[in-house]
Amino acid sequence: MSVHQFKPKTGDTSEKITINLGVIDLGQIDLLVQEGFYSNRTDLIRTAIRNQLSTHAEVVRETVARKTFVLGLQHYSRGDLEAVQAAGEMLQIQVLGLASIADDVSPELARATIDSVVVLGALHASAAVKAALADRIQ
Q: Which CDD domains match (predicted)?
């Protein structure tokens, strides 16, 4: 099986998450914001998350290498999948970050070319493609 290089999609790569915090934690965050340590709550939370990711960076690197994940952004266009289909191959998509499948990819083409999908982060694809791959998405 040959390896295909795909071009990453550019644009907004952030995802919104929701967290629940206790009132004491939230009060402490607000105090640090008020005292000028952070510009707002989001700034503190992002900084805390980045610090934790930095602390565990080596584990992430080792796991990405061991499990052969693509790290970052991975975009699959209709042309990319048609080339995979023409070669008689199937993709095992493994991404840590963002995997996106172009809007013009049909559910049939996706099923014909994508054997499995493991995304730690976000998968952007049409609802029809996600439904077609539901049994292959882990």
A: RHH_NikR_HicB-like
For residues 99 and 116, what is the distance between their CA atoms, to the nearest angstrom? 13
What's the pLDDT score for residue 5? 46
Asked whether the beta carbons of 138 and 116 are under 8 A apart, the reply is yes
CA atoms within 13 A on the CB side of 55: 6
Q: What is the pTM of this model?
A: 0.66
Distance CA 95, CA 72 (A): 7
Cα–Cα dist 99/9, whole Å: 9
- Rounded Cα distance, 6 and 75, in Å: 6
